[in-house]
Specification:
The protein has a single domain, classed as P-loop containing nucleotide triphosphate hydrolases (Rossmann fold, 3-Layer(aba) Sandwich), CATH 3.40.50.300. The protein is about 55% helix and about 10% strand. It contains eight helices and four strands. Strands 2-3-1-4 form a four-stranded parallel β-sheet, covered by helices on one side. It is globular.
């Protein structure tokens, strides 16, 4: 194993993915600290629609998803700028995550509109050299979400997390 690592180039862009509460940000921080990587993190607290969405998933789904998409596109632009200097970067998201969540949360009509925006904005997104997919049962996700005490997340249901888990499983099975 050591020989394989020594002979292989380090990935320049690592993405960590998985459902809410699985530990993406924790792992990203640990990798960044251990290996002196640049870190790019999701910023859900900046999304002004997220609280309303968690309270009622039929309300504010489209603006919630569009906000996250625009936010991640900006982060990807920052990633592309930093790649000029060739640092190793680790992110706690894939841009494809946005489409995955949109598929779970949006109506068919909203998804059609979302897809037009998504396709236009993501056509030249960088591809990670390494993707780390984290999984956990819904009970563990709920426990971790409750422990971190984010007031907006208290409305997350096990049914919603199960749908997200299923969407991730399907997404990574098809890759």
């Amino acid at each position: 194993m050591d020989l394989a690592i020594k002979d292989s180039p380090l990935p320049k862009f690592i993405a960590i993915e998985g459902p809410i509460g699985v530990g993406k940000t924790t792992l990203a921080h640990k990798l960044a600290k251990s290996f002196n990587y640049d870190v790019f993190l999701e910023q859900p607290s900046e999304n002004p629609f997220l609280g309303k969405f968690y309270m009622n998933q039929n309300q504010s789904a489209l603006p919630t998803q569009l906000f996250f998409l625009f936010q991640r596109i900006q982060q990807i632009e920052d990633l592309k700028q930093q790649s000029l200097f060739e640092p190793v970067r680790v992110a706690d998201f894939l841009i494809e995550k946005d489409r995955l969540f949109a598929e779970v949360t949006l109506s068919p009509e909203e998804l059609e509109l979302y897809d037009k925006v998504y396709d236009h904005l993501t056509f030249d997104s960088p591809t990670p050299d390494l993707v780390i997919y984290l999984q956990a049962p819904v009970e563990i996700l709920l426990d971790r979400i409750n422990k971190r005490g984010n007031p907006e997340e208290r409305f997350l249901t096990s049914e919603y997390l199960e749908r997200i888990n299923e969407a991730y499983s399907k997404f990574f099975r098809l890759r």
